[in-house]
Amino acid sequence: MGNKHLDGKVTLILGAAGKDNMAQVMARRFAKEGAKLVLAGRNEDALKEISEELGGSYCVCDITKKEEIDAMVEETVKRHGVLHSAIQATGWGYLSPFLESTEEDLVKIMNLQFKGPYQFFQACIPAMIDGGSIIQISSATATIMLDNHAAYMGTKAGIDHVVRTVANEFGERNIRANSISPGLTSSPMTEAAMSAPGLEDAFLKEYPLGRIGTSEDIAAMAVFLCSDECFLSGQNLQVNGGLTLRRNPRSHELDASIAQAMAKLES
After folding, report:
1. Is the pLDDT assigned to residue 1 strictly greater than 50?
2. Of 78, 89, 187, 198, whose CB neighbour count within 10 A is largest?
3. Is 254 among the domain residues?
């Protein structure tokens, strides 16, 4: 391709240990744009496979363990001397009625979606000696409602606000920090849910641009945020086809849409 927007940019992507997940799609796009990749997550076999495919390297890291986060960033700097871009793309799509969320699950999701990203930013900032870009993958649900998703939504919203504080404090070091908010995204993670007849239809009418988002949409925004052309910082970018102009369907609407689709199939 022509000009590579990320030529030589040392890029760490955490959450890339799921086959063809959003982080892996981003990694493939970043490789095409000339980035030097370090891919991280918990599944070593998946990391080895994707890093070999893209000519990058990998680190095994559990985001809930500070010592593993620190070791991952130290290893990245040892290999490349610097860190230019850091993308945090882990998450847990925890669904639970509000009154049924257990203390154990709350601690788990706070560790995964608030404490872990917080400590990831803490580790990455000192390694960005020439400035850089930090990206947190958030969710439209940090802004608009979705039933039975309070713990997920709250922790995403909380870390979005931390991203703003990072942008404010470290802008003088030429470090940008932004979050990207997808809506419902077609990916291996959502494949099982989206296969339910009628479910996608219920969401689709809430998207002004008329389609469900893809991981490629998120990758395209991430490339811009990590390029030298970017003059954005402290922003939460709603890369979801206008979904936040409307809303997510309520749970009873989802149930009704699925029931209607099932009845059509059976008739």
Report:
1. no
2. 89
3. no
| Inter-residue long-range contacts of 19-23, CB under 8 Å, 24+ positions, other chains counted | 19/46, 19/49, 19/188, 20/187, 20/188, 21/89, 21/187, 21/188, 21/189, 21/215, 22/89, 22/137, 22/182, 22/185, 22/187, 22/189, 22/215, 22/218, 22/219, 23/87, 23/89, 23/90
Q: CATH number, domain at 35? A: 3.40.50.720
Q: What is the pTM of this model?
A: 0.96
| pLDDT at residue 30 in the model | 98
The answer to the question of residue 57 being in a domain is yes
Total tally of structural domains belonging to the chain: 1
CB 136 within 8 A of CB 160: yes
Contacts of 79 (CB under 8 A, 6+ apart): 38, 57
The alpha carbon of 59 is separated from its chain's Cα centroid by a whole number of angstroms, namely 18
Residue 199 counted as domain residue: no
In a domain, 88, yes or no: yes
Looking up tokens 């990916």, which residue turns up? Answer: 187
Q: In terms of residues, how long is the chain?
A: 267
> What does the pLDDT look like over 144-172, one tens digit per residue?
999 999 999 999 999 999 999 999 999 99
